[in-house]
Each structure stands twice: as C-alpha cells, then as structure tokens.
User: Which sequence fits this backbone?
C-alpha cells in the first residue's frame, strides 16, 4: 500500500514537472539565444575588472564598484535600485615578504592571509617545521613546535577539506607555541601563484602571523627538510586591521506583473580579494546575475513575481553583506520564493544544486526537486541542466536558514581553484562564450521560478 501511494505521487509530480518544461521551452530558448550573442554582460565584467579592479572590503574600489553597479542597474531599467548599508572589516596587507635564510638565501613568493596580524618590523626569523596534517603537528607537540614556524604542506584534497588549514591553522599552531604559520596555497596546481584568503583567530589564543606560499615554495622547503637540512625563513608582514568601513549591497528589481511582493533573488558577491581583478571570484557571478536580469528586462519579459538582483558585499571575510540583506528583509522573509547564488566561477555552466528548505516533508521536497529538474531540462541544450539535491552558498545562507529555498549555481569548475584568490584571477581567465552561457542559465532559471503559477516549493 505504501508503495502504491508513492507511485501515485510520483506520477502526479512528474506530470506537473513535464508541464513546466513544455510551458516554458519556447521562452527559455529565446532567452538562451539572446544570451548567446549578448555583449552588454561582457562590457560590464570588463569595466568591473579592468577599470575598477580588485575590490577588497574597506577599499575605495569596492565602494566605486557598488555605486557603479547601482547606477548600471538603474540605466538597465531596473526598479528600486539601492544600496543596503553594511559595516565591513577593513584589513590591509601592506608590504610583506618571505625569504629562505638557511640552508640557502632565496626570496619566496607569498601572500599574507586576510585578517593576519603583522610581524615585528624586523620580521620573524625562525626554523620551519613542515607538517602534512594537524595530527602530525599535534604528535610533534609543544616540544618540537614552540618557537618555530609551522608550514602546513597539505596537498589539495578539494576546497572544503583543505581550507581548514588556512582558516584554523594559526590557532592550532599557536596553541603549541608556534611563532607564525606558512601554508601551502589551497589550490590543485600552481604556476608560482600564491593564494590568499581569510583566516581566523580565537579569543584566548596568542595571535600569530599567517601567510601562504606557492606550491613550488612549500614543496621546496619540504624537500630541503626531508634531506636533513635545518630550514630557516624570515617572514615580514605589515598587515593591519583598521576600523570597520562603510559598505553595502547593491540591489535592483525587475518588478513582477502579478505578485510583485513575491521575490526571487539572484546574485553574487561584489567584493573580492586584493590581488588580481576578482574576475572569476566573483566578478563573473555578480555580473552574470546582473546581466541575466538586465537581459530579461531588455527582452520585455516581465514574470509574475519580482526578480531581484543582489550583489553582496564582504563575502570574502565575514559575510556582512549577506547578513545586512537578511536583516533588511526582516519579517517579509516569507515572500522570498527562492534565492540563487553564483560564486563558483563562470566556466561552462553545468546546472544547479537545490535545497528546498529545512524541516519539509519528503513529499514536499521531492515535488520541489522534480520541479527544479523540469527547469533544468530547459537548459539541457547548453549542457547546464544538471540538478542535484543539496546546494546553496555563503551569501544566501542567512536566507536559507530562515526557510528560503536555496539554489547554488554550478560550473564544471575545471580550473577555478587554480585562479581563486590569486593575482591570476583576471579577466583573461573568463571565456566570453562560457560567461554568456552562465547568463543564460541564470536568466532561464530565475525567469521560470519567478513566473510559474505555483511557488517553486509549495509548503
Ligand atoms: Zn567568491
């Protein structure tokens, strides 16, 4: 009997889902064709990367980018264009360097980690102890670690698994008396490209400076140590944390024709690290989202509900823009039908990860996933139709926590983590046609979710 009930639900659900696909196929194809020849999106990302440049929290460039984005949305004909204020941390790296002192004198390429304290002006000169894991370091213990610089020479095993050495490495080493930490950059391969990124301190634990080396530099130190050499480096960093700065999210609406109060959010983050141009991370997501909505507007498509592009500030360190947007929405959160985030680069789009929401019955979740898969079918012609259960993103997390269905854009991600947070994250890494296909993927998904008669997730 239970089985029969399940089959009935599945049959009804797939019919509904099929309807969605059939109903929107023609319009989806029109959007895809328009995106394939779109020039405006590329013009926007070029301006952002080449004229404004990188956009770290606290910088004048970030504020310029936010003002420019709001102005651009306004010129594109979006409504309610505005800045939602947020206070953001302001960290500046200043001059910094690492050099081998023993067994040979040689400079190494490096980048301080975001949020790190400075070294004394003369630097910190100490022996390096390379380790391949926290466990290895903790086995060596205070006796071998105190007074030394720990080098986390940890091979990349996926961002989620490896980034912990960047975020928690300083605290874990300081607990054993280390005087600084170095990190093999969190990325799969390297062409002498150090990767920066945020790091944390913990109350009650001594703050020590932290910097990333290139894979080339880290593995050389490992080889020298393995050969029995005492390896000594000098680390110099002028990094400083200034008072929190004024920043904000840029938003603009394509107002819905029937249910304007119901909102579908699509966005990326406007801030970036202070190296490269923040082209893939996340100029590509921010500009693809902006252009997806601008393109719908230009095509004269007005969906049933409102589509809102949100360009969040300060994703890279504390997510203050994500929280500011959530706070601004307040108790109208129930009007948010879905939130789509693109923050994985604009290589060839692949699809979306989908989370219907917390605490929903399996039947509701299955039905919503089927509907999302039906939307995915509209993107199969460009290879962007893969819909998987589970997805989200840092900037939509505060919305998802309060029940908004979350959708994480996914690309093939072949090279993303080679460029991420490096001086090489520049616009030449973004392929124009792939970028356009990402605009298509976002535009089709947002349009259909905003236009379907029923909400994406019917609770
Ligand atoms: Zn990002």
Assistant:
């Amino acid at each position: 009997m239970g089985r029969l009930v399940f089959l009935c639900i599945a049959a009804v659900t797939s019919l509904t889902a099929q309807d969605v696909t059939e109903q929107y196929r023609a319009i989806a194809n029109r959007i895809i064709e328009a995106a394939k020849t779109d020039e405006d999106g590329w013009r926007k990302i070029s301006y952002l990367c080449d004229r404004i440049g990188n956009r770290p929290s606290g910088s004048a460039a970030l504020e310029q980018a936010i003002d420019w984005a709001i102005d651009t949305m306004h010129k594109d004909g979006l409504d309610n264009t505005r800045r939602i204020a947020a206070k953001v941390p302001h960290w500046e790296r200043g001059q910094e360097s690492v050099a081998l002192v023993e067994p040979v004198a040689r400079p190494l390429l490096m980048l301080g980690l975001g949020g790190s304290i400075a070294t004394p002006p003369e630097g910190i000169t100490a022996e390096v102890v390379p380790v391949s894991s926290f466990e290895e370091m903790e086995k060596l213990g205070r006796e071998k670690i105190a007074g030394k610089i720990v080098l986390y020479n940890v091979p990349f095993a996926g961002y989620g698994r490896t980034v912990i050495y960047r975020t928690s490495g300083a605290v874990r080493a300081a607990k054993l008396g280390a005087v600084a930490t170095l990190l093999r950059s969190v990325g799969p391969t390297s062409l002498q490209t150090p990767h920066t990124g945020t790091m944390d301190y913990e109350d009650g634990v001594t703050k020590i400076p932290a910097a990333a080396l290139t894979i080339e530099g880290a593995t050389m130190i490992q080889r020298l140590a393995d050969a029995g050499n005492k390896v000594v480096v000098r680390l110099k960093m002028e990094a400083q944390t200034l008072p929190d700065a004024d920043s904000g999210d840029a938003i603009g609406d394509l107002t819905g024709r029937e249910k304007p109060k119901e909102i579908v959010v699509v966005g990326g983050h406007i801030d970036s690290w202070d190296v490269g141009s923040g082209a893939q991370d996340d100029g590509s997501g921010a500009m693809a989202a902006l252009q997806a909505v601008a393109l719908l507007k230009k095509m004269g498509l007005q969906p049933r509900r409102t589509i809102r592009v949100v360009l969040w500030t300060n994703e890279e360190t504390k997510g203050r823009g994500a929280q500011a947007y959530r706070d601004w929405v307040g108790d109208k959160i129930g009007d948010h039908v879905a939130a789509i985030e693109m923050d994985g680069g604009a290589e060839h789009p692949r699809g979306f990860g989908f989370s219907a929401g917390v605490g929903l019955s399996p039947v509701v979740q299955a039905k919503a996933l089927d509907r999302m898969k039906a939307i995915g079918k509209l993107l199969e012609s460009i290879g962007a139709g893969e819909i998987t259960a589970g997805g989200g993103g840092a900037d939509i997390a505060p919305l998802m926590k309060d029940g908004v269905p979350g959708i994480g854009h996914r690309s093939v991600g072949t090279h993303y983590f080679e460029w991420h947070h490096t001086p090489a994250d520049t616009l030449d890494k973004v392929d124009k046609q792939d970028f356009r296909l990402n605009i298509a993927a976002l535009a089709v998904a947002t349009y259909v979710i905003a236009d379907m008669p029923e909400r994406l997730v019917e609770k």
Remarks:
- The first helix runs from residue 2 to 36.
- Residues 269, 281-282, 315, 343 surround zinc ion (CB under 6 Å).
- The chain has a mean pLDDT of 96.
- The CA atoms of residues 69 and 250 lie 7 Å apart.
